[in-house]
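Final paragraph of the annual report: two paired records, presented back to back.
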Amino acid sequence: MPPGVNPSLPRDRSVRVGAVVAVAIAVAFVVWLLVRGGGSGSSNPAVTAAQTTTQTTRSATPLLEAASIQTLKTVPALVGHPIYWAGPRSRITYELTRTRDDRIYIRYLPKGVKVGDRRADFLIVGTYPVRNAYRAVQTAAKEQGAETFAIAGGGKAVLNKSAPKNVYFAFPRSNYQIEVYAPSPGRARSLVRSGKIRPVS
């Protein structure tokens, strides 16, 4: 287990923007404790406490499967909003997780890695329902150590120097937020800045 990961954290808890960036470096591994039922962690979008009033704890095991690109294309219609990914890759298994509150995670597993692997060694793109998501990113941008940059389409991205593996972004008038986790510091930022993180279509 990576340093700083606390498996006793309550499921699907909400945190203030200032705290979420500080713990974001451990997010990806904690996600897998949540989705595999092997612990009680949570991935925490950069939202304020007021914005999480509609997010309730869910006890049911989320959907977790190896998905084809065609399957991924059906998900936006099911959840009612776009879902984001890093595009198609060769020799990759797309691990799709859908929680009961419609958080969507697409994890890129290299050939030979089984679905449900608990290591935090792989690219993850998450799409979360968040009310006033753009405002949440703007608020996170005011935190100490935060760094922001604009993205195509008028969006804004934020990361924190204390958690360089995680980038969050959103667009104006949007009620969903995207998180990108990459195991190598700087890679998530590079992917977001390049425009490679885009809706599945």
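The closing record of the year follows.
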Amino acid sequence: MSNLSPIRPITLAEIEAARERIKGIVLRTPLVKLDLPRGSPEIYLKLENLQPTNAYKIRGAVNAVAMLSDAAKRGGVWTISAGNAGQGVAYAARAAGIPCHVVVIETAPQTKLDRMRALGATLVLVPFETAWTALETHVFSGMDGALIHPFDDHNFIAGHGSMGLEILEDLPNVAAVIGAIGGGGLIAGVGSAIKAKAPQVQVFGAEPEVAAPLAASLKAGAPVKFDLWEHSFIDGAGGKSVIPRMWERMRPVINGDIVVSLDQDRHAMKLMAEKARVISEGAGALPLAAALTGQAGDGPIACIVSGGNVDLKKFSELIDI
């Protein structure tokens, strides 16, 4: 880990350059108002579930792969993922004509495994603890080529920042932006863009109560482990700890973190399906669940629907409440 690049701020120029670099592949996703009862917060959904890989990670992956040297590209790429980052990197690798390996958490939904394979990725399934160790150390035995880290990667994060630019253009009076917290790359990128252009906008993370290390870290004033971690259907967010490097990236660009219950998240998934015909995975619904608590204010609030990669049978079971 001593060879890792020092953490530095993601600049607005880097985010703007990333947006230009990825625009031929990545969609500019819509920001749609959610129809809610009178007295509810004014909420808009940033529909990253509509990306070609049905998740926002393609933004960072395409930017990071594009910025590799020709020599590095020839060696191929690898990443570590619960599914969405793996799809993003596999998609970018396929577009670049280079091989891709993904170290995958073995509890990843079958739909995510199938899509990574369909994109040409070679998968190595491992337990959560093994994957998390690789995330922390940036090392996995047997992996050659360039690591495209799913969150602790400067160029990956800069790609995600393009979302922040789009939100500000489509909703200039936005008061708050909420993004789910997994490794922290989404909020670090979007927060960097928001704070550079509109520092008055509040930026919040959203976590499930069974996996809320950012909330614990903010309370402690330092990155900590979440000792009460439990596996849940929210596989795309909620780590066991905040990695110190990501704490350093997130802390300057966020205003707080909102923790929600699993039932609140399921309700948000159902609400999006009923009101907007949006299929969201558990992690993608966290921001809406957080906004509905009222802790982010009355709005306008932009909730990032980070992904929609969920088995439809499982989705139907989850929203049957």
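The domain at 58-147 is CATH 3.40.50.1100 (Rossmann fold). This concludes the annual technical report; the extension proposal builds directly on these records.
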